[in-house]
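In response to the reviewer comment on reproducibility (Comment 2.3), we provide here a single inverse folding case reported in full, input and output, so that an independent group could reproduce the run without further information from us. The structure tokens appear first.
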């Protein structure tokens, strides 16, 4: 899920409250998540908003899966194609509703794929500002098949935005190792370090920010240096 919008855009977004629900639902064999619903169309929320499907909707789902598998017979590969389409919608077009629809399609095809939960986590964090649920979904994604190299970077970034820098920091430290040529996790690690109270170390880390998407973090970098007195 690499190549995200700058951190400052996230921080400027309006907050939307989501109701907390404690009930757990099995979404794949041996995998359960909290049942969270949102005030949007069913296919624009994770797991189709946990809506009870009509027989007609179930038939439509089966037809969709069959049509996709005619083109790509392997379920994991077919799900991967849908995840990639969702990622393009999310990152390239800022179309979060369409991204959620594609991740739901991937869920129908192969619910064991990490990218589905990763994508859902990004959707609920960005659109609904439900950082608690996003954290849960990121943790599920880490246990599923074929996690993205950017998983820890995205998870840590979300925790940083949620005001949880101490939890974000170890994830971002690992993210720098996972994706050493990506400027975003380096920048976010410097922020997490500053917000954890270590100004000197944050300046040292800021001096090491480099790599792809450097142009997207220049504003964050300037603000950090101002706040830290680098």
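Designed residues, in position order:
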């Amino acid at each position: 899920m690499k190549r995200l919008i700058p951190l400052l855009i996230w921080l400027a977004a309006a907050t939307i409250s989501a109701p907390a629900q404690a009930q757990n639902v099995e979404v794949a064999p041996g995998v359960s998540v909290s049942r969270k619903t949102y005030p949007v169309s069913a296919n624009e929320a994770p797991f189709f908003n946990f809506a009870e499907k009509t027989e007609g909707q179930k038939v439509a789902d089966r037809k969709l899966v069959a049509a996709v598998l005619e083109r790509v017979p392997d379920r994991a590969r077919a799900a991967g194609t849908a995840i990639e389409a969702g990622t393009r919608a999310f990152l390239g077009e800022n179309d979060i509703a369409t991204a959620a629809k594609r991740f739901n399609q991937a869920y129908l095809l192969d619910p064991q794929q990490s990218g589905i939960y990763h994508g859902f986590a990004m959707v609920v964090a960005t659109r609904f500002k439900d950082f608690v649920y996003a954290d849960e979904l990121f943790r599920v994604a880490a246990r599923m098949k074929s996690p993205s190299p950017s998983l820890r970077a995205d998870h840590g970034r979300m925790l940083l935005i949620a005001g949880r820098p101490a939890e974000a920091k170890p994830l971002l430290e690992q993210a720098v190792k996972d994706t050493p040529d990506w400027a975003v996790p380096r920048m976010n690690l410097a922020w997490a370090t500053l917000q954890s109270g270590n100004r000197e170390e944050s300046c040292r880390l800021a001096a090491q920010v480099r790599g792809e998407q450097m142009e997207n973090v220049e504003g964050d970098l300037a603000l950090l240096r101002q706040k830290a007195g680098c």
